[in-house]
Amino acid sequence: MTIFGWILLFFLTIRLIVSFVNFIWTYLVRKELNNYCTVKKNQADNECSSDCVTITGDSVPNISLPSWSILIPARNEENSIGNLLEDILTLKDRPCEVIVYDDKSTDRTREIVLEFQKRLPELRLIEGELPKGWLGKNNGCHSLASVAKGQYLLFLDADVRIDSDMATKYLNYAISNKISLLSIFPAQILENRAGKISTPIMNWILLSLLPLPLVKNCSWSSFSAANGQFMLFKTDDYNLLNPHEKFKMSRAEDIEISRYFKNERKHIATLAGDKSIRCNMYNQLNDAINGFSKNVFYFFGNSPFLTIIFAILTTLTPLWLFVFNGVTPGLVSVAAVLLMRIFVSLASKQSVGDNLKFLFHQQVVFMRIVAKAAVNRKKRVEIWKGRNIY
Questions:
Q1: CATH annotation of 61-281
Q2: Which of 288, 297, 204 lies closest to 250, judged by CA?
């Protein structure tokens, strides 16, 4: 074995361990989340009257939810926002208000929201101009927070889908664990080949590099992550730190905000979601490449160099070990790569079979995403929803 070969195997082993830790952690968190639903059911049946209930060996607080707001920034979301509003109608724990910010949509987004007001009395629509020096979504979230009244603020992307027990699980989790910012990576709806060879890439990066228990339990800001599709804030802490204004020009404001909260000694947590929070991000491959290229560098400290090195190493490690170190190290690396994909798939609620089947395709798409991001950075052009976000 060469020294470089040992380095490659060490890096691969660390990522395998991280993916396994995240798999176990996610299993335990989902068990806790399901316990909240059991408590809710017992309360509904008038069987839970004490301050704490014990279920399957775990002690779960009996919590009455405070007021909370659902805040949805939207721009040209006519194909998805109606589905989310329909889901909100089914929630067992309803918010005190639902507010949509329409960011100059040119489709039927506004009309769909107004139609839902007849069925969802707590629904409001607000609109405004995009100030100079702001990105659209950041301004939308800031505008929503400025008029919201809930004690907790839940920002949802318009293409997210939720089940009826979503609030029961995640608000209780945030309150019980005294979390100022809770973010979820939703389970992804992968309907076609384009989605299967692109969308799982982000979970593969996250869950093989970042131990989620350390996001929650370690004060180092380097162990931070968030996903703007689902961000739940304690309102007092949000108003104190005013995060969307602080990062008003950031293309990866979710990651920046998570690090900011940690630096300010606020308790955060990031979870791989279950089926109660889902999202169909992209059905077209070019859309996925364009979308992920916006923030792929931010997964690596906004460093193109580290991102490119990671892409090269993850693509060529097995081949390098086979050619320069022999069959045994090569087979060990292949086994580690496959096991890692299995752990990440299980933690992400994705198909193990599909992620193994499309492993090579996903790696090629990842290289295309990195190349696209590098070109965009050099040109300082990144068109997203009709605007240059550079």
A1: 3.90.550.10
A2: 297
